[in-house]
């Protein structure tokens, strides 16, 4: 068994490409064995032109589903072989038109029986395998178009990764992590202000005033944190939520925000507020997904010098 077979689904794309290359190489053998100067990669363009006689290059690319540069390469090689001719559209000089040459037209009756035999043999091959290969391909293309494999893998990776995240309450041992995690993003985007320093240097005060601090841990590594600060009866502020740079874009932020809402309800919170910045695009996207809306009406001075926006979430209504 070759390595590609041992790897199974991990090598699927490589095996499909290799199979495609093998089929194209077989196609060359078919045409060469019959004494025909034709290449499999020309087929789609040639077939389209025999059906429509003359087409602009852009339309050929669109109908076949290849990029414009890729079609240009195919057309250039077909022109070199004398199978097609090209020129400018008489009504729109910007459009390059292509058509089969006399040599290409003469080749049609020789190619058609080859294509018929090829189609029949491929049908038989997949019938013997009991596979509706065209149906499978259409289904795969549709599903991948609806949600690319890249997105599917990222989502699954995050789900699997997040299974290993454990939440821990504040402790003296974790206090340095609360400070370092927040200093990392604050210095990345802003300047650490007096209000930031007060909270980071005195995290115990958050607990003493009725709030809480929670840490997200991956094994022995502390990768994220957030604080809930009690402001008034039933109103809490979500503050100092941070994910270390090395582990961003893995869904930890959403996981922490979900945990923050659970903790807030445990503390009896009726609403949550937070202060954010337009610079924090990823964080703001998550806040919106969880129902936070910008509060433009509350006339309170912002606690930070950096440009800030105030968001609020009604926990009673959203529960």
Notes on the structure:
The longest helix is centred in the middle third of the chain and has 27 residues, at 102-128. The mean pLDDT is 91. The protein has 319 residues and is α+β, with helices and mostly antiparallel strands. The protein is 53% helix and 19% strand. A hairpin with a 2-residue loop joins β6 and β7. The chain has helices at residues 3-7, 12-33, 43-52, 57-64, 68-80, 102-128, 133-146, 149-162, 175-189, 194-201, 203-208, 252-266, 281-289, 315-318; strands spanning 54-56, 84-88, 96-100, 165-169, 212-218, 221-232, 235-243, 271-276, 293-294, 309-314. Strands 4-5-6-7-8-10-9 form a seven-stranded mixed β-sheet. It folds into two domains: 36-146, Arc Repressor Mutant, subunit A; 165-318, Gcn5-related N-acetyltransferase (GNAT) (Aminopeptidase, 3-Layer(aba) Sandwich).
Short recap of the structure:
The chain is α+β, with helices and mostly antiparallel strands. Helix content is 53%, strand content 19%. The chain has a 7-stranded mixed beta sheet with strand order 4-5-6-7-8-10-9. It has a 3-stranded antiparallel beta sheet with strand order 1-3-2.
Provide the CATH superfamily of the largest domain. Answer: Gcn5-related N-acetyltransferase (GNAT)
Largest sheet: 7 strands, mixed
List how many beta strands DSSP finds.
Answer: 10
CATH architecture of the largest domain: 3-Layer(aba) Sandwich
Rg value: 31 Å
Distance between the termini: 55 Å
SSE succession:
HHHEHHEEHHHEHHHEEEHEHEEH
Please mark out the parts with pLDDT under 50 across 5 or more consecutive residues, or reply none. Answer: none
Strand order across the largest sheet? 4-5-6-7-8-10-9
CATH topology-level name of the largest domain:
Aminopeptidase
User: Percentage of helical residues?
Assistant: 40-55%
Overall, the morphology is elongated
- Helix-strand category: alpha+beta
Figure out the total of helices: 14
Strand content: 15-25%
Number of domains: 2
CATH class of the largest domain: Alpha Beta
Overall residue-averaged pLDDT value:
91
